[in-house]
Amino acid sequence: MDERLFRTAMSKFTTGVTVITTEVDGDIHGMTANAFMSVSLDPKLVLISVGNRAKMKGYIDLSSTFAVNLLSRSQENVSKQFAGQINDKNTAVFTEFSGLPVIDKALASIACDVHDTTIQGDHTLYIGKVRDVVVTDAEPLTFYSGNYGMIS
Ligand code: FAD
What pLDDT, on a 0 to 100 scale, did the predictor assign at position 1? Predict the structure, then answer.
């Protein structure tokens, strides 16, 4: 199968956009990700998929913790910053929640401890056991067919 066709098919799945955050030796790191899902209610588990070549993989492996920050519509530049598409450190405002750095004014932030890990192909799946969540009320940032906020 052609790789471009596979990528195109996957891009037809409309998602929200998250930034994964963690802290190692006092330094905060973030990475934009849309490979996120809720896994279990009892216990409360979520899943993220991180490329094996992403720096974030090393950081999560060291910290054994991460937060998933669901972005609001007004946070497109936050997504671009943590995807390496722009370089404007001012877009990144962090706050602390449940012992982890989280993105200020995210729709929701989910603080997790790594519960399980499995390497699958060129990505690593991290199952996070949820410590705590915080929720705000705003419109979501969406991603479809390689574009933000475009559903058609
Ligand atoms: P870097 O490339 O070093 O970090 C990413 C960017 O974040 C850099 O520009 C860096 O300057 C900035 N940054 C990091 N920490 C801070 C900080 N404290 N303050 C300010 N800026 C900071 N990849 C996946 O593996 N899984 C996915 O599910 C996924 N989904 C994506 C969804 C979308 C919509 C997009 C646009 C990209 C997605 N990516 C995904 C790709 C991923 O975001 C990029 O490949 C990213 O650059 C990988 O980051 P890195 O961990 O290698 O670190």
Answer: 86
